[in-house]
Amino acid sequence: MELRQLEYFVAVAEERNFTRAAERVHVAQPGVSAQIRRLERELGQELLDRSGRSVRVTEVGAAVLPYARAALAAVDDARLAVDEFTGLLRGRVAIGMVTSHNVDLPGLLAQFHDDHPAVEITLAEAGSDQLVDGLRTGRFDAVIVSIGSAPPAGLDFEAVTDQPIVAAVSHQHELAVHATISLDTLRGRPLISLPTGTGLRARLDEACTAAGFAPTIAFEASDPGVLAQLAMRGLGVAVLPAEFVEARSDRLRPISINRPRLRGRLVFAWRAGGPSSPAARALVGLARRMLGTGSACLH
Questions:
Q1: Residues 171-205: pLDDT tens digits?
Q2: Hey, what long-range contacts does 132-140 have (CB within 8 A, 24 or more apart)?
Q3: What is the architecture of the domain spanning 1-88?
Q4: 94-299 maps to which CATH number?
Q5: Model-level pTM?
Q6: In angstroms, what is the C-alpha Rg of the chain?
């Protein structure tokens, strides 16, 4: 049994796909498949079910998976202990982010790379729900994510923005004469929103459910700029952060939503108690310093 076999097995189990796992470990896909087959032959049991469209761990694979992760973590910890002793920070950090945010992430990562050039940095984009789950399972060391008024359990965070969520319409829309509307005014109207899994959409769905109706989503896209364009064309009411709409007030009319008020918080988050690796702790420390001075914001 070799460490690389365990690494490949964990990658396929988490990605549920041989091609994505191969990209993650920077090895050709046939090489990943061959090494996992050797591991299965050595153990005398299949660890992965390859019969479906996505790869799943077998019952035996599920039992082996935590031990494989623990073995890889132990090796990483041993290397990091040596690096800490010698004063050289190595390892890797994985960061996740929502599609649209106002954190100067390139600036943050450039500064971190200058400070710790031996640390490998990976970056992925996903919805808020997926990012929080990835943070809890250890896929990410830190995430830029949208949260509600009640933060997800098990996370610590540094706030980036906390602002109202508003309705946005073209200046020709019938609602454009209003400065404020109640949430119930949106009942039955075609809405333009970010997709399910994003923080803003979660706030909208929660509020509408509490008000006794389901939102009528006519259009959804992961890019707020696309939502704004659709609203500008009169195709519905876009639900967006106030700051985003106000920056386009020449083409969009921002309307406050009351009863209830909707707010969105964007945060830089990590697991409660601090990241486990020295590299991740260094990244979180730098992010908190930059956010605290305001230099992490683009607008």
A1: 999 999 999 999 999 999 999 999 987 888 888 99
A2: 132/269, 134/96, 135/96, 135/269, 135/270, 135/271, 136/271, 139/14, 139/94, 139/96, 140/94, 140/95, 140/96
A3: Orthogonal Bundle (1.10)
A4: 3.40.190.290
A5: 0.59
A6: 23
